[in-house]
Amino acid sequence: MSITTTYDVTGMTCGHCAASVTEEIEEITGVEHVEVSHEAGTAVVTSAEPLDRAAVAAAVTEAGYALT
């Protein structure tokens, strides 16, 4: 059973921004799928188990953006 969580991400302005966030979140263990929308300012993450919000925040920060 997969878990889908939506995170709000600030600072993204283009597709490249979304791609950077996607790449970083995909590196988190357990992540199965990531869909990032710079227009909506969201990252929808599907994972095998609940993810640690701090790990997601760290990945988003690594890409140069922030969770809200």
Rg, rounded, reads: 11 Å
Uncertain stretches: none
- Report the strand count: 4
Query: How would a textbook summarize the main sheet?
Result: 4 strands, antiparallel
Which structural category fits the helices and strands? alpha+beta
Number of helices: 2
Features of this protein?
68 residues, alpha+beta, globular
Short description:
32% of the residues lie in helices and 34% in strands.
Give structural notes.
This protein is of the alpha+beta class and 68 residues long. It has 2 helices and 4 strands, in the order βαββαβ. It has helices at 15-26, 53-62, and strands at 3-10, 31-37, 42-47, 66-67. The chain has a 4-stranded antiparallel β-sheet with strand order 2-3-1-4. A hairpin with a 4-residue loop joins β2 (31-37) and β3 (42-47). The chain is globular, with a radius of gyration of 11 Å. The mean pLDDT is 97.
Outline the secondary-structure elements.
Blueprint: E1 3-10, H1 15-26, E2 31-37, E3 42-47, H2 53-62, E4 66-67
Antiparallel strand pairs: 1-3, 1-4, 2-3
Helix pairs in contact: 1-2
